[in-house]
Specification:
By secondary structure, the chain is an alpha+beta fold. The chain is 35% helix and 22% strand. The protein has a two-stranded antiparallel sheet. Strand 1 and strand 2 form a beta hairpin.
Length: 46
């Protein structure tokens, strides 16, 4: 698990687990399971 931080550096009370996806599963995941990718660059940069 890795800790997450707010864009201003304060620690958030949540955790994330990174998993590896392989072969056909990653293709299905990328094409069918992702509902939205949102650009939050402005939020992170300010």
């Amino acid at each position: 698990m890795e800790s997450r931080s707010h864009p201003y550096g304060t620690k958030l009370e949540r955790r994330a687990i990174q998993i590896g996806l392989r072969n056909e599963f990653i293709k299905t995941f990328a094409k069918e399971d992702i509902l939205l990718i949102e650009d939050i660059s402005d939020f992170v940069c300010h």
